[in-house]
Amino acid sequence: MEKKTLSRDGTPIAYERTGRGPAVVLVSGAMSTGSTVAPLAAELSDRLDVTVYDRRGRGESGDTAPYAVEREIEDLAALIETLGGEVSLYGMSSGGALVLRAAASGLPVRRVAVYEVPYAMDDAAVRAAASYTERLTEALGQGRLGDAVEEFLRHTGLGEEMIQGARQSPMWAGMESVAPSLAYDDAAMGDSRVPKSELASVTAPLLALAGGASDAWWHEAARAIAGAAPDGAYGTVDGQTHMVEPGVLAPVLVEFLTR
């Protein structure tokens, strides 16, 4: 990351800015850094002024205890001020949950787009999310970073054989290094339900997206997000799953964010 800004509590937040056009900040999800969304930034930069950043506790950004979701909202506020005072926000997965909470908090946000925020859409999913929170909290509290990563991968539906294979891979050390931030994404998800009362205060136009090849519950969640916002819309990205291809997603975002 080329640049840093200071959040309200003094935490340095690393970011990179590229392109020209309406400004947008890309917010990554769990187990990711700004570099994770850099390929999407590259696809957008011919039409948009794009900023990617390392969320606190990962990459080149700092961290300050104790954590609260409000601190991450302050991180975005600092970025927005640094970038000139008003931006659109795009959030991927649990990063989308942070984006929605930031927009609801009253930050100067022009437009809001999210892709497949993993809200629980039935009681079983709510219980599974609560159980994950309990296991994750225990693992992190005991310093078992590898086990915390395992809990996350298991929660996302990865099979045990693939999890153990990942644990033996060269990428595992990097995954453990950002494991403490899994608690941050979990906190951003709240009680795992769509935060309809918060979304009711999002006055900016909002687009909730799901992949055309994704399971039905992703679409149900996206529709619920869109339906709870005063100016919300639901859309699909043809042929895509949760691992959305930047080159396919980019035109959808450009069309919405340049209106």
Gross morphology is globular
Order of the strands making up the biggest sheet: 1-2-4-3-5-6-7-8
Terminal residue distance = 29 Å
**Beta fraction:** 15-25%
CATH fold-level assignment of the largest domain: Rossmann fold
Helix percent reads 40-55%
Average predicted confidence as pLDDT: 97
CATH class of the largest domain: Alpha Beta
The helix count comes to 11
- The unreliable regions are none
Describe this structure in words.
The structure is a single chain. This protein has an 8-stranded mixed β-sheet with strand order 1-2-4-3-5-6-7-8. With 259 residues, the chain is an alpha/beta fold. It starts with a strand and ends with a helix. The protein folds into 2 domains: 181 residues, Alpha/Beta hydrolase fold, catalytic domain (Rossmann fold), CATH 3.40.50; 64 residues, no CATH class. It has 11 helices and 8 strands. The mean pLDDT is 97. Helix 10 links the parallel strand 7 and strand 8.
Q: How would you summarize this macromolecular structure in one to three sentences?
A:
The protein is α/β, with parallel strands linked by helices. It has helices at residues 38-44, 69-83, 94-104, 123-141, 145-155, 160-167, 172-177, 182-188, 196-199, 216-228, 246-257; strands spanning 3-6, 12-19, 23-27, 49-53, 87-92, 109-115, 206-211, 232-237. The protein folds into 2 domains: 3-119 and 194-257, Rossmann fold, CATH 3.40.50; 123-186, no CATH class.
